[in-house]
Design brief:
The chain is α/β, with parallel strands linked by helices and about 290 residues long. Helix content is about 45%, strand content about 15%. The chain contains eleven helices and seven strands. A seven-stranded parallel beta sheet has the order 3-2-4-1-5-6-7, with helices on both faces. The radius of gyration is 19 Å and the shape is globular. Bound molecules: guanosine-5'-triphosphate and magnesium ion. The site of guanosine-5'-triphosphate (GTP) has 17 residues, from α4.
Length: about 290
């Protein structure tokens, strides 16, 4: 099933995403997701941060670099506008400069009507499909409160972007997201002193983090500075995930979270209780379990 999808290129993936959108719980959809879940291939990288911090510009730079290395990249830009009143965040979140004729790059914007974490939402299913087809899956989410933590339910590696001179993003970190990022970047280093100060502040805040230290990088997508160091940090985190079964555990916890969320969404909190023990066996597909419950 996945080989057929891969052979069909971007058109086939677009059709599969349409099927996912139209009939997320149809047996054929769940069977496809099941097959994709069993054949993961990509490194899933999440990029989050406040509006306008430079996420999309950074993603353009990363995509260009990865394409040069021959890696095939799929992108999901999550638009949270429907969750934010006033439409202040409406608009195209991607602003990516990619070549539409390049079969090695697939870009898709998606609305996050609710939490990102649920299987019922399009995002997780789309990610699982893309993960079976590409080398890298990039997910952009805008950090508006809770949504930073949602990205950990989908990504293997989470990059948090901080805006130079923005004390508020550091406040976010103090409010509990300090444990979320695997890599922190201060964007727009071409702005000079403000960026350096934010870099310094981030180091001070992250020093209070439990467990292993996190790389904090200064970069400028506009000038192409610091991109190589970020690529190296992303690759190093990916290598680290292959030690001691960390990737398997992280993805297992994600799949369990999606399943619980999907059952809660479909049957309510009571339904979740009645469903009893939903614990997935190692490597078991949450989509198959969901299909049995439906
Ligand atoms: N000076 C400078 N400006 C930048 C840099 N990167 C991005 N910008 C500018 O910052 C603004 C926002 O950039 P985006 O890449 O769209 O930021 P974003 O975080 O994706 O924005 P949203 O998706 O709307 O949250 C644009 O005006 C960019 O030109 C940089 O490295 N240096
Ligand atoms: Mg953007």
């Amino acid at each position: 099933m996945i080989a057929g999808l891969a052979a069909g290129g971007k058109k086939a993936l677009a059709d599969a995403l349409a099927q996912l959108e139209a009939a997320p719980f149809a047996p054929a959809t769940l069977a496809l997701l099941d097959a994709a879940f069993a054949a993961p291939q990509a490194h899933v990288v999440g990029i989050t941060g406040p509006p306008g911090v430079g996420k999309s510009s950074l993603m353009s730079a990363l995509i260009t670099a990865w394409r040069r290395q021959g890696a095939r990249v799929a992108v999901i830009a999550v638009d949270p506008s429907s969750r934010v009143s006033g439409g202040a965040l409406l608009g195209d979140r991607t602003r990516l400069r990619t070549d539409p004729t390049d079969e090695g790059v697939f870009v898709r914007s998606m609305a996050a009507r609710d939490r990102l974490g649920g299987l019922a939402g399009l995002t997780i299913g789309a990610m699982v499909l893309m993960r079976a087809l590409y080398d890298i899956v990039l997910i952009e989410t805008v950090g508006v409160g809770q949504s930073e933590t949602d990205i950990t339910s989908a990504a293997d590696t989470v990059i948090l972007c901080l805006q130079p001179g923005a004390g508020d993003s550091l406040q976010f970190m103090k409010a509990g997201i300090v444990e979320i990022p695997d890599i922190v970047v201060v964007t727009k280093s071409d702005l000079g002193l403000a960026a350096e100060r934010t870099h310094h502040d981030a180091e001070a805040v992250l020093a209070f983090r439990h467990g292993e230290s996190v790389p904090i990088l200064l970069l400028s997508a506009a000038r192409g500075q610091g991109i190589a160091a970020l690529l190296a940090a992303i690759a190093a985190h990916w290598r680290g995930l292959h030690e001691e079964g960390r990737l398997v555990r992280r993805r297992q916890a994600q799949a369990q979270g999606w399943l619980n969320e999907a059952v809660r969404e479909a049957f309510g909190r009571e339904g979740l209780k009645r469903a009893g023990d939903l614990t997935l066996a190692e490597g078991a597909s949450p989509f198959a379990t969901l299909a049995k419950l439906a």
